[in-house]
Amino acid sequence: MDSTRVEAAITRVHREEWARVVASLARRFGDLDLAEEMAAEAFATAVERWPRDGVPPNPGAWITTTANHKAIDRLRREARRASKQQEALLLRDDSPPEPVGAVEDDRLRLLFTCCHPSLSMEARVALTLRMVGGLTVPEIAHAFLVQETTMGQRITRAKGKITAARIPYRVPEAEDLPARVASVLAVLYLVFNEGYLASGEASDPVRQDLTSEAIRMTRLVRSLLPDDGEVAGLLAVMLLTEARAAARVSASGELVTLDEQDRSTWNRAMLAEGLAIVRERLAVVARGDAVPGRYQVLAAISAVHTSVPDARDTDWSQVVALYDQLAALDPSPIVTLNRAIAVAELDGPAAGLDAIDRLGGPLDGYHAFHAARGDLLRRLERTADARAAYDRAIELAGNSAERAYLIRRRGQLAE
Predict the structure, then answer these.
(1) Domains of the chain by residue range
(2) ∠ CA 193-249-407 to the nearest 5 degrees?
(3) Structure pTM?
(4) How many C-beta atoms surround the C-beta of residue 395 within 10 A?
(5) What percent of the residues of the chain are helix, what percent strand, and what percent coil, each to the nearest 5?
(6) How confident is the model over 27-31, as a mean pLDDT?
(7) Would you say residue 401 has pLDDT above 90?
């Protein structure tokens, strides 16, 4: 069989089935380490056998069956205590695997386990990317600019804490579900944002491998929780943002701001899907069947920006009103900063600058705060103050494309 086709098939199956296989093994054997290792070994066996034997008719079931057999063999080899020996003997090699389509809830359990609030946010992100996303430890380490050994230790400690704390492998009870869903969505949003504005000198300014993975996992969550408005809202935010990826960075590696982007290059299919989700959620809210949460409001803001053919057509009064709604849900300095930027478009740079300057110290270490001040000071022709603000923003910026943009804007002050 053609090796290129087999390699493509294995890559596709890994992308589509990894989470299912790991989740199924974790549920059956109750051991995340065993689940991860046996899934990896099953794919390694596929790499060895499929070029010779051909891709099986049901690749996902083949991987699941192989991984289960390998797990049973491992338990038998390592059985040193009577309890383990009994457990291994009770598991039959010829027991049929569960149908691939029947493990959807297992994937949801796995997501909630990886995003348990007792783990640090760093550990949740790393564990989710490894166990649910199927990324390798080197890939995750590269994404977050840490050493492979550090990332490996972080994942190992997280799995150890799950075992030691006896964190249950299940979907939370109804009363705990809203808070736990929020934890899952926070992890996925963090992964997406790291790809959208990747940090670090050695990183590409936009990491579409991370944004794509975040979208894929959010789609998974939505397929399992189709009626959750915040899941839908987060997916819409990601789609409406990712649709603009082709226009976000210039050929010279410089950030292109939303008002300067060539909208003809935006991904129309992603835009249409994101806007459709926003309209769907707005209809639910209008009927009084739900109250929008943070991600739904963020999606509505994105929809205002992306649904018009030209940036000059943006309804800034609606943007400000939506930020007022968001501030009631998330009264953070960053939300206040973004509202102030919208106020500057609606009422002029002086009004926006006044709102930004009232924020004071909490955002002094945030590059976007100084970049926004620099832009408004430039528009007010306060050149020296604008230069100082741009200097501070450049000093703090971690994204190479943003830094290139800020350097150009600062250089234009002399003109």
Answers:
(1) 3-95, 331-415
(2) 95
(3) 0.76
(4) 11
(5) 75, 0, 25
(6) 85
(7) no
